Amino acid sequence: MDKLIRCLILSLVVMSASLLSGDPVRLILDTDMGNDCDDALALGMIHALENRGEVRLLAVTITKDNRDAATYIDVVNTFYGRPEIPIGVVRDGKTPQDAPMLKVPIKRRDAHGKFVYPRRVEGAQAPEAVELLTKILNEQPDGSVTIAQIGFSTNLARLVATEAGRALVAKKVKTLYLMAGNFQKPQPEYNVFTDGPAFADLMKNWPTPMVFSGFEIGLVITYPIESIERDFAWVANHPVVDAYKAYVGKEEDHPNWDSTAVLQAIRPERGYFNLSGPGTVELGEKNTTVFKPDAEGHCRYLVLKPEQVGAVRELIADLVSEPPQRNVMGAGVQRVVF
Ligand SMILES: [Ca+2]
Fold first, then answer.
1. What average pLDDT does this structure show over 227-244?
2. Three-class secondary structure of residue 12 per DSSP
3. pTM over cut 0.85
């Protein structure tokens, strides 16, 4: 009998351990949606991985100061059956310009005058990003949150500008993944130079580990145009495809910087990339990123594994083009009947 009870206890322990390791990554996405279609690809990929129970998207915060960005993100979340995901917007932020990759899908109407892509909120109604980040982090268990920053550092630098903000991040955030910088050449990278002071502040104040996907990674891991043309045949209209076409404007593969940072954030243990040793990152001359090896440093950057490039490229394309599990009809799109 004793043996049986011990066996039962052991299997319960094993079961709970496996449940624990299978817990979805609690993710916040901070994006400059609208400045390049790779943010839209990354958001589509997150939803596909959430369908598989690998991630839970807690919130999306935006550093592009244009309200269409929030509307478009809500359109995509609604398309994937998750209109409840909170969205926060930057105040007095960078790049307020309108963007066709946002305008085209959010304005599209069908023959009856209805939106092709329903949405829950218009951007103007969304709360301020740092307030939302503070609220969401406070609600999460300690040490449980992953953040992926795939735009400028405006919001996250503001979050850790105060002692209270730094303490909250230190308590709640496991790792920050960033698409930022260039770790191959001393060249300025868009996400860094668009808000250089915010990047410098973030590097000074962020209290937990950071993993960078530099410009050189997404430049090689492109999104294949064949996928845009062939892999979405299951649906008549798709907001990520609309964004890709409106942004790229021609039939070609497009660098996919943001999805690489997000993939590593959700699947850090799968060996898609090598990791540099530890070090520090700071803002260099002319908005370059300077990495200094340091055993005490809490920054690392992704290094390409040449033998994995093809596999990662296909994996991301398969995930982005994966059909949503629910609410496809509710999202006002037509499923192709085979
Ligand atoms: Ca971006």
1. 97
2. helix
3. yes
